[in-house]
Structures are given as C-alpha cells and as structure tokens.
Design a protein that fits this description.
Length: 300
C-alpha cells in the first residue's frame, strides 16, 4: 500500500473510531500528504527514519515554527504506530524520530477590569433591542462566563441550556459531552437574547433551527462570525493584532485560578483531557502576580 491510500484509511480511523474533531483530522491528513510529497510517493514500507528526518529538515528550511515541527513528528508517530498495528508495515520508522521541543508561549489574557468594561459596554448597547447587539452580548458573556470553545458555543441548541441552574451541555473534543456552569451576567444576557433577540432572527430564517446562537439570516452562527466579533472587540484591549474566541477561554481560566479555583475543577470546566494542558494557566497567574509585585513592592 502507498502512503496516500494509507493516509485515507488512517484518517477514516481517526474520524470513526477515535472520533477526533474535523479540524484535528484535517491537520493529520495535511501533515501526511506533505510527507508523501516530500518522500516522492514511495511505497509505505520504503519510508525509513532518514526519510522522516529529511521531511522535518525541509520544514525547518521553510521556516516552519517549532510547534508545527513537533506536531508533524507526533503525526508521524501516531500514523506509523497505527500502520504497524494494521500489519501494513513490519517496522515503525518513527520510533527514534525527534522533533524540536515546543516553545512555551503564554496565552493572551485580558484583565478583569478590561473585561468588565467591555461587557458593560455591550450590555448598554442592547438597550435599544437590536437583535445582533443582544446576540453579541450573549456570545461574549457566555464565552467568558463558561470558558467554552467557539465550536461548543456554535453547536449549542436550546435544549442544551438550563437557565434556572445556569448550566450548558456542550459537546467537546472527541464527542465528549460535559456540563459547564456560567454566572448570573451570562444568564441575564442569554435570557434577554432569547426573549428579545433570537425571535427576530428566527423570523428571518427559511427553515427552523434549534441553535441558540443565530446569524443575521436566522441560521446557526458559524465560528468565523464569532471570531470576527471577538477579534474586533478584544484586540484593542489586549494589544494583540490577532486574537480570537480562544482568548476569552484563556481569560476565563486564568481569572478562575486567580480567584482561587482548584486546578482540577478548571480542567473539568474547560474539558481538558490532560491536567498538563490546564497547568499553562498557572504560569499566567504566576507571571501576573510577579508583575504586580515588581510594580508595587519597594524592594522588588
């Protein structure tokens, strides 16, 4: 079997057996197609450690980031491990493949005061009853108030919300379902949107959708629209050229830890499979504390 055919079989396994997200499967497929092009279409059994090292070296020469190289090495290890389990190859060439360690970059986080000002201004903008203003306020409050991913927000249906308890049922990575809490401001914003904004948007649609968050034409909102909203309102606050909905997730997690939340509780709220993923926010909190100390203490 050649690498191209094996790639399709592998990505089908990722989709149907491991139930990974479409974005993750797309990344695996892209990496393996790049490997196939670099290897010159040779049979799968002909790919050895030198071919893999040359593939990563070429990526380095192109200027690919260390995170990209690390991801590609991980893709190769996962793919060839699967190929050996399927008896497509007799030896796994990726066992000794080493990629540069990922450079740790701390996530972009807005301050509490900045978030308060931002959300208050959007609440004030809803007073005239504009459905898009009501929707945008609900989006921002819910992303910050619950820390959910943009895909989880866009996938929310009406039945997923429990306004009395202040919780939402979301479908996360790997099709894993979890219940996340949100606070009174998010509940109030959602209630106002569902009562005064969503019905107006529903009336614009040709077909009914159970989605909570709707686009201007009444259909389920897409991630791009949410990204554009967050980028427009958050970039000036955090001083970053590119910022998206994940920045609100980062901000929510950091503020939870700043407020004394247990790390494992934050892990469950965010839906992280590994506690190590959540621990990045402890570094953010520590850096913020250190910066405050250096500014305020006379002997810092």
């Amino acid at each position: 079997m050649d690498l191209a055919a094996a790639t399709e079989a592998f990505t089908e396994h990722l989709e149907k057996v491991r139930r990974l997200s479409a974005a993750t499967v797309k990344a695996y497929r892209s990496d393996l197609r790049d490997l196939d092009a670099a290897a010159g279409g040779v049979p799968l059994e002909s790919i050895d450690l030198e071919v893999l090292r040359d593939w990563l070296w070429r990526a380095t020469q192109r200027g690919d980031a260390r995170s990209t190289l690390a991801r590609r090495a991980a893709t190769a290890r996962s793919f060839f491990n699967w190929a050996q389990e399927q008896a497509l190859i007799t030896h796994d060439p990726s066992l000794r493949l080493v990629a540069p360690k990922r450079g740790r970059t701390l996530p972009t986080v807005a301050s509490r005061d900045a978030m308060s000002t931002l959300l208050d201004s959007h609440r004030d903008a809803t007073e005239e009853g504009d459905p898009i203003a009501l929707r945008d306020h609900a989006i921002l409050e819910l992303l910050y108030g619950s820390g959910i991913r943009v895909s989880e927000l866009c996938g929310l249906d009406i039945d997923d919300l429990d306004l009395d308890r202040g919780t939402a049922r979301v479908l996360g990575k790997g099709a894993k379902e979890r219940i996340v809490p949100y606070g009174a401001p998010a509940r109030d914003a959602l209630s106002a949107y569902l009562r005064r904004g969503r019905p107006v948007l529903v009336a614009r649609a040709r077909t009914f959708t159970p989605a909570v968050i709707l686009g201007s034409r009444g259909g389920r909102v897409g991630p791009r629209a949410v990204y554009e909203l967050v980028a427009r309102v958050l970039a000036p606050i955090v001083g970053a050229e590119t910022v998206g909905p994940h920045a609100l997730r980062h901000t929510a997690a950091t503020h939870l830890l700043d407020g004394g939340a247990d790390l494992r509780a934050v892990q469950e709220i965010l839906g992280h499979a590994s506690l190590g993923t959540t621990q990045i926010y402890t570094h953010v909190s520590t850096e913020r504390l250190t910066a405050t100390y250096r500014l305020a203490h006379p002997r810092a």
